[in-house]
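Subject: Sanity check before I submit

Could someone independently write out the structure tokens for this chain? I want to compare against mine line by line before I put it in a report. The sequence has 70 residues.
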Amino acid sequence: MTSHVVTQAAHALKKSSHPALRYLNVEGTAEALIIYGKVTSYYLKQLAQETIMPVREGLKVMNQVKVVRD
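---
Independent answer below. Compare away.
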């Protein structure tokens, strides 16, 4: 089940209208989806999390995205 959810979450980020979200990655464990990568604002970090919420199928979401100011 987890690999299917990871694929769906990654696809949701890749089709985002925000280009920065397309470069984030998703991994899965038995209990959680883990988002990681870098963005330039806390807004984008939160948006990444909200983008995968509809496909998480009851898994926790761990947001390990780093905010890096250019």
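---
OP: Matches mine. For the report I'm noting this point. The chain has a mean pLDDT of 95.
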